[in-house]
Amino acid sequence: MDTLQYGEIRNDIVALLQAARTASARSVNALMTAAYWEIGRRIVESEQQGQERAEYGEALIKQLAEDLEPRFGRGFGWRNLTQMRAFFLAWPASKILQTPSAKSVPLPELAQKFPLPWSAYVRLLSVRNLETRAFYETEALRSGWSIRQLDRQIGSQFYERIALSKNKAAMLQKAETAASGDTVTPEQAIKDPFVLEFLGLKDEYSETDLEAALIQHLTDFLLELGDDFAFLGRQKRLRIDDTWFRIDLLFFHRRLRCLVVIDLKVGRFSYADAGQMHLYLNYAREHWMKEGENPPVGLILCAEKGTAEAHYALDSLPNKVLAAEYQMVLPDEKVIANELKKSRVQLEERRMSRIQSDQPES
Q1: pLDDT score at 91
Q2: CB burial string 148-172: b at 16+ within 10 A, e below
Q3: Residue 293 lies inside a defined structural domain of this protein
Q4: What is the pLDDT of residues 81-114, one digit of tens each?
Q5: pLDDT > 80? residue 47
Q6: Residue pair 47/88 in contact by the 8 Å Cβ criterion
Q7: Are 302 and 267 in contact (CB under 8 A)?
Q8: This protein's superkingdom (predicted)?
Q9: Percentage of the chain surpassing pLDDT 70?
Q10: What's the pLDDT score for residue 322?
Q11: CATH code, 247
Q12: Same domain, 170 and 303
């Protein structure tokens, strides 16, 4: 086959597949957004039939969360159902439908009314001023902003800056240009926590095969140390404001009676890692810690070629006695660091071996 002709065919197929993936991700997001709006609508309409609206609405959402969350995932907990209600109130039927009195609209038809992804509407809900919110919504549609662009523009107070600018047209034109990290691939869009739960897929993945292998190896290693460590979860998701975070591993230490939060960094340890761990610990203390348990402790594991470091995040604990007890009972940092380093070398060797075996003989 002619090389030039093959190249054209291959490029056409690649372009077709990329377009199909993009369209699929956009379609799923639109259907999901429409479903969430409809859920919010039904909650509001049910509230309006209640005798005591505030009390009835709160009880309704709580009961729905108890019924839906075990079946459909954390995305249908109390907080997110409340957000769906707020979504409908911010974009009411009179704004979305030609005939607001219509009791039911097919989801595919309704989905066409929501050109932005659900995560964009969630971000817009955080903008309290209605005029400001409308501006960001309009510009997101006009300029084709990704959620990252929208988030950056809101965070940098683009609306306020443009209001003060003498050259508004130039600022609007500049805002149309995406930064290097703004592009969201179809794969990343599908990995969105809301989309995963909407599709009924497991919300467990790592950025690299190496990271996933290290997390699994670390899980096995800690469980082999004895029966003190009880495994609770991997890639456990938590949400703070409009930002999602993932904790690599969560254990409960039976003897210490505390949660152990473990975060793995493939790169070198930095002060930012410590700050993030303290955020995790504060969240775990408030939302996951049960009565009678000791405060959670964090373990940051960092590994890169030639170095391995383990660090306990203990300085936020209430007293030094408890911190000392933790240090005595938990595995020695050097043992964990050496195990992490050794497992990384083994994984690298296996990877290189596979690459060599796949190469054709000369």
Answers
A1: 95
A2: bbbbbbbeeebbeebeeeeeeeeee
A3: yes
A4: 999 999 999 999 988 887 766 677 888 889 899 9
A5: yes
A6: no
A7: yes
A8: Bacteria
A9: 77
A10: 60
A11: 3.40.1350.10
A12: no
Q: With respect to residue 60, please indicate whether it lies within any of the assigned structural domains.
A: yes
Q: Could you tell me if 217 and 343 lie in one domain?
A: yes
Q: Determine the structural domain holding residue 108 and report its residue range.
A: 3-188
The residues near 310 (Cβ < 8 Å, ≥ 6 apart) are 299, 300, 301, 302, 333, 334, 336, 337, 340
Domain boundary among 155, 188, 221: 188
Answer whether 300's CB lies under 8 Å from 269's CB.
Answer: yes
Calculate the dihedral angle through the C-alpha atoms of 180, 213, 252, 274, rounding to the nearest 10 degrees.
-40
Judge residue 274's burial from the number of C-beta atoms within 10 Å of its C-beta, 0-12 exposed, 13-18 middle, 19 or more buried. Answer: middle
pLDDT of amino acid 267: 64
Are residue 214 and residue 106 in the same domain, yes or no?
A: no
Phi-psi map region of 100: left, alpha, beta (phi>0 left; psi -120 to 50 alpha): alpha
> Are the C-beta atoms of 195 and 189 separated by less than 8 Å?
yes
Let me know if 115 is exposed, middle or buried by CB neighbors in 10 A (0-12, 13-18, 19+).
middle
Per the listing, tokens 């009565």 go with: 291
Are 280 and 298 in contact, with CB atoms under 8 Å apart? yes
Name the DSSP letter for residue 225: T
- Give the pLDDT band (50/70/90) at residue 246: confident
Tokens 């960092």 correspond to what residue?
A: 302
Would you say 298 and 261 are in contact if contact means Cβ atoms under 8 Å apart? yes
pLDDT number for residue 219: 80
Q: What is the mean pLDDT of residues 211-215?
A: 71
Provide the 8-state DSSP code for 191. T
Per-residue pLDDT, 89: 94
Per-residue CA distances from 316 to 240, 323, 325 (Å) = 19, 9, 14
The answer to whether residue 41 scores a pLDDT higher than 80 is yes
Buried b (16+ CB within 10 A) or exposed e, 47-61: beeeeeeeeebeebb
170 and 61 inside one domain: yes
